C-alpha cells in the first residue's frame, strides 16, 4: 500500500471540527462507543433466525425445495449477523473489551466465509484511510473482470461490463472464500496489512476459521442430512451466489457511484483533508429509513461510519442528520440516494467506465 498525505486545508478542518462538536454535544449524556439494547436486539434476532433455519436443515421430513429455501435464509441471515455484529466488532464498538470484540468478530463471520481478521485488517488499515485511492485502498484494486475506477486501464471487454457485472457479483463471496483470503494471507505484497500481528496467530485463526466455516456450511449438511452430497453442494453454491448479490446490492454503490471521486494524488498528496475526502468518496442510501439500518447494520449511513467509526452504528441516524445539516452549512459534499437510485447510479458508473478514455 502506498501511504498518502491529506491536505491541511483550514476551511475543511473548521468544517470537521464543527461537525464533531455538534455530534459530541448531541451524545454528551449517552455512551455511543459500545453496543446498546438496539444493537444487541438486532444481532440476536438475526442469530436466532440464522441458526433456527440451520437446525431445521437436519429434519428428516423436509423436501429438497424446503431445504434449499431454509439454506438460503440461513446464509442471508448469517450475512446480516456480519452486518449487525461483525462490522462493529472489527472497529471495537460492540464491547469495551478488545478480546470480546475479537471473539464476536470471529463468530459473526462464521457463515460468510471471509476470514474476519484479514478482512478487519484491510478494512481498517486500507479502506478507512484511503477510500477510492488507487494503490492505497485495497477495495479498489484492479480486477480481471470490471473497470470500477478511471484509474484502471480500459479493455474492450469493459464495453459490456454493465451487462455482465451481475454475474460477476454473484461470485464475489466465493472468490473471497477460495482465492482472496489465501492471497492476503500468504502474499508478501500484503505484509504492510499484517504488520504487528504474529504469523502464528494469523495462520492459526485462519485455519480454525476455515475449518469452522466449511464444517458448518458443507460438511455437517452432507454428513447429517438425508440429501446427496452433490445436492448439498449445489445448494451451497447457489445460496452463496444469491447472498453475494444481496451483499453487493447493499455495499457496492456506497463507493462506486456516478458522482464519486477517485482521487489521483499529485505525488504523495491528496486534494482534501481526511474528513472531506470521505464525503467525496461515500454515498448514503435511505439513511433516514429504519428498515435500511436494520438490514444493513448502518452501512447505509456510510458517511457517518467513515467519519465516526468509533461510534456504534445504532447511533448513525442521529449523526446522519447532523452531517446533512453541517455539510449544507459549510458547502461540503454529501451524497444521499434511495437504494434504487444508488444501484442505478452504480450501473451508470459502470457504463461510463466501459467507454474508452
From TrEMBL:
Residues 67-337 form the Fatty acid desaturase domain. Signal peptide: none annotated. It comes from the Bacteria. The chain crosses the membrane at residues 39-58, 65-83, 103-121, 162-186, 206-224, 236-257. Keywords: Membrane, Transmembrane, Transmembrane helix. The keyword Membrane applies. Pfam families: FA_desaturase. PANTHER family: DELTA(5) FATTY ACID DESATURASE C-RELATED (PTHR19353:SF19), FATTY ACID DESATURASE 2 (PTHR19353). This is Fatty acid desaturase. It comes from Flavobacterium endoglycinae.
Amino acid at each position: 500500500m502506498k501511504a498518502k498525505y491529506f491536505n491541511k486545508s483550514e476551511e475543511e478542518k473548521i468544517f470537521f471540527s464543527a461537525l464533531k462538536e455538534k455530534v459530541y454535544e448531541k451524545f454528551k449524556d449517552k455512551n455511543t462507543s459500545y453496543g446498546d439494547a438496539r444493537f444487541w436486539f438486532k444481532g440476536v434476532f438475526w442469530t436466532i433466525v440464522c441458526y433456527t433455519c440451520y437446525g431445521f436443515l437436519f429434519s428428516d421430513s423436509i423436501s429438497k425445495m424446503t431445504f434449499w429455501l431454509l439454506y438460503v435464509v440461513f446464509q442471508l441471515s448469517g450475512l446480516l449477523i456480519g452486518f449487525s455484529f461483525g462490522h462493529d466488532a472489527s472497529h471495537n464498538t460492540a464491547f469495551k473489551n478488545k478480546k470480546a470484540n475479537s471473539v464476536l468478530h470471529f463468530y459473526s463471520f462464521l457463515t460468510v466465509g471471509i476470514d474476519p481478521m484479514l478482512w478487519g485488517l484491510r478494512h481498517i488499515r486500507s479502506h478507512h484511510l484511503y477510500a477510492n485511492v488507487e494503490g492505497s485502498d485495497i477495495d479498489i484494486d484492479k480486477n480481471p473482470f470490471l473497470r470500477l475506477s478511471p484509474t484502471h486501464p480500459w479493455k474492450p471487454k469493459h464495453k459490456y461490463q454493465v451487462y455482465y457485472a451481475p454475474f460477476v457479483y454473484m461470485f464475489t463471496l466465493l472468490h473471497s472464500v477460495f482465492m482472496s483470503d489465501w492471497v492476503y494471507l500468504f502474499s508478501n505484497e500484503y505484509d504492510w496489512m499484517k504488520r504487528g500481528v504474529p504469523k502464528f496467530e494469523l495462520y492459526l485463526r485462519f485455519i480454525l476459521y476455515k475449518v469452522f466455516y466449511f464444517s458448518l456450511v458443507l460438511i455437517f449438511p452432507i454428513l447429517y442430512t438425508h440429501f446427496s452430497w452433490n445436492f448439498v453442494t449445489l445448494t451451497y453454491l447457489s445460496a452463496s451466489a444469491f447472498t453475494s448479490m444481496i451483499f453487493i446490492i447493499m455495499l457496492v454503490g456506497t463507493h462506486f457511484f456516478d458522482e464519486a471521486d477517485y482521487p489521483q494524488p499529485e505525488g504523495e498528496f491528496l486534494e482534501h483533508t481526511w474528513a472531506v475526502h470521505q464525503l467525496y468518496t461515500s454515498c448514503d442510501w435511505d439513511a433516514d429509513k429504519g428498515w435500511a439500518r436494520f438490514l444493513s447494520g448502518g452501512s447505509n449511513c456510510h458517511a457517518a461510519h467513515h467519519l465516526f467509526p468509533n461510534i456504534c452504528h445504532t447511533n448513525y441516524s442521529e449523526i446522519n442528520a447532523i452531517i446533512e445539516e453541517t455539510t449544507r452549512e459549510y458547502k461540503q459534499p454529501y451524497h444521499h440516494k434511495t437504494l434504487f437510485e444508488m444501484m442505478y447510479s452504480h450501473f451508470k458508473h459502470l457504463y461510463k467506465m466501459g467507454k474508452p478514455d
